[in-house]
User: Fold this.
Amino acid sequence: GLPLPKIYVIQEAQLNAFATGRDKNHAVLAVTKGLLQRLDKTELEGVIAHELSHIGNKDMLLSTVIVVFAGVVALLADFFLRISFWGGRRDNDNNRAGALLMILGIAAAILAPIAATLIRLAISRKREFLADAAGALLTRYPEGLAGALEKIDADVTPMRQAAHNATAHLFIDSPFTEKQSHNWFVKLCSTH
Assistant:
């Protein structure tokens, strides 16, 4: 039930793919050359179904709303921190209130971005699981996506030119070769 998105091939040997765009009528699906060459038909179908599910589930819109929410939280934390420094200091009651605002502002400046990031990661993880499930329903063969994800996770091929910090979150897997350093926190925030 989706219009055909624009499809692009990234000239990279790494196994990777992503979907983006503001809505289903302006969606883009990008796959790497390595993905096309090294996955079998059912695995490739699983990855494409996963990415199409992101489009159908409006994950791009949700991601935009989450980024705006995180930005608002960061701005509010900054606002409270600044108001605590610029608040009037005329008498003792005002000094106590200013000190309290400063402590709250510092706590908010430290905790708010962390909380916003954890919320963003939790929602991202849930949306990835939803895309996995919807992709499996679309292909009627979940083993295809599972096999593809195993191959993608095991791939250590570096992405030479298309990898940037600004776009790394779009990919089905981190485009950076450091992805193999899986500590407990990385596993906690892992989406697949």
About this structure: The radius of gyration is 21 Å. The chain has a mean pLDDT of 83. The helical segments are 33-38, 41-56, 59-86, 92-139, 142-154, 184-188. Residues 14 and 157 are 5 Å apart (CA to CA).
